[in-house]
Structures are given as C-alpha cells and as structure tokens.
Amino acid sequence: MLDREAVADGACAQTTIPLLRERLSRRGQIKGALVPIDAIACNADPAQPIRDARADCLLAGKAHQPGLMGETEAVFADPKAEVATTIDTDTGHGRIGERAVRILTSVDRPGGDRRLPGEYRFPDLRPIARVECRRWVKSGIWEKPRQTSAISVCVASRPMTPQMRAGADRSHWAIRNSLHRVPDVTFGKDKARSRTGYRPANMATVRHCAFNILKAADDTRSLKTRRNKAERNSEYTASITGQTRQPGIRAVVRVCGLQSCPLPFP
Fold it and tell me: What is d(CA 225, CA 75) in angstroms, rounded to the nearest whole number?
C-alpha cells in the first residue's frame, strides 16, 4: 500500500480521491501505472488528472449509471461491432469464479475538443469493456452450488486485450480483498463499537499492524486460523512476533483479541 486517506466527516470518496492522487502524483508513484477506480468515480473529473500525471485510468461503471450501461449494452449488441472476447476462470476458498470479458476494439469519436450534447467526455478513451462475472459457492456437501452474477462496464485510456483486462480485474479485487475483506471479516471491523472521535482511526491502525504481523508469519494457515491460534497458544504468539519486547507489538497483540493469551514477555 503506497498511501491512504481517511474520508472526512460529511465527505465522500469523490472528494477524497483527489487528495490522495495529488500526493501520489507529486511523488511520481503513479507514473506509467494503471489506476483502477470503482464505479462511484466513473466520470471524467478524476480521469483527467490521472492522465496529466502520465498514468492510465481504468474506470468501472455499474447500475448507478443507467445511461452509460444502456449505451454500452447497445454497442455490444450490434452485430457489426468489432469485439474481442475471453473467459477467465479461477477457483479457491470453496467457490468458482468466471469472468467473461468482451472488449470493443474500435471506438469512433469525433476529433478535437467539440463534443455532441450528452456525450461522455472521458479523456483519451481507448477500449470499452463489458465484464460479466459469475460465481458458484457451495456451502455444504449435499447442497447445490449457489450462483450469483454481476455485469459491469469499464472505460480505459490504455489499449488492452481481454486477457489484460481480466488480469487487471483480478489484481484490483486482490487489493480490495486484502485491504477491506480481511479487516471486515477476520478482525470483525463491522461489529466494532468504536465509531466516534479518534477511536476508528486508532483501531484501524492497530488492525493493520496485526494484519502485517500475521501476514509475515511463516505459516500456511489462513489469517483467521493464525489469529485464533495466537489467542490460545503463547508459544505460537511468541513465534509470530519474534519474541519482541517492543511495547507497540505487545499492545497490538493484546488489543486484537489476544489478551486472554499469557504473553511470554512482561
């Protein structure tokens, strides 16, 4: 993780993203990179500064933009459209995921700065992609797998093949899972009652410290299993913390659900 910015009270992600982008741009950390942004910021406002920083943007749109979704669906439904397709499949954690990626290889746009009324003004628009994700989850031995599906569209400023778009989607969700799902599910962030003042920010720092400690452990178990074992096994706790005597590490171990474990250090 290069940097992060907390959303201020009364603000939203659209007003916070520019602050984070400006810091990364000044340090030159996004030059030449592909910057994916979720559906909430799928507009030209955050895209142009990314291009000015010599980076490429990948903007995703979903049902909250019915105009963009409708026009994209109509384009891909045209039998004359030049479309490249690939299907990407991955398995793990008791589920099967399939992504059908279709990319429109030819995008006709008028030259110059003049645009038609209502036309989407994405800078340096190259490919338009349509991604249909399907997932099968099986919770029991005799249960029939449950299927869920979702459709999203995206626009990018970098020429991409369907295989490149599928790889970018996997990388994007890998970041989201490590930064959001682990604190929410493994550490029970959503159940925490510390929601006012400085307590949410302080606890977020503690959770990230604990996550780094568990992630660095030489263990093949899941993070949830490592945390539960560290709570019940003082020797394992000492092994993953390196038997350190730093007060900060001891505080992290105690706060993150390990306070019932007799620590091997004072």
Answer: 47
In degrees, rounded to 5, the angle at the alpha carbon of residue 21 between the alpha carbons of residues 19 and 22 is: 65
Residue 217: both structure tokens together: 């452990």
For residue 173, CA distances in Å to 36, 119, 181, 208 come to: 10, 30, 10, 18
Alpha-carbon Rg for the chain, nearest whole angstrom, is 22
- The model carries a pTM of 0.65
Dihedral pair phi/psi, residue 89, rounded to 5°: -125, 140
Report the amino acid identity of residue 167.
G
Asked whether the beta carbons of 117 and 151 are under 8 A apart, the reply is no
Amino acid at 35: V
Which one, of 211, 188, 254, 258, lies nearest residue 230 by Cα? 258
Strand 34-37 relative to strand 56-61, pairing: parallel
Report helix angle 13-26 to 44-52, nearest 10. Answer: 0
pLDDT in tens, 177-224: 777 777 887 788 878 887 788 888 888 888 888 888 888 888 888 888
Tell me the pLDDT tens digit for each residue of 226-254: 888 888 888 888 887 764 445 455 545 55
List the chain domain ranges: 13-108+121-186, 190-258
- The token duo for 57 is 């943007």
**DSSP per residue, 143-192:** SPPEEEEEEEEEEESS---HHHHHHHHHHHHHHHIIIIIIIIIIS-GGG-
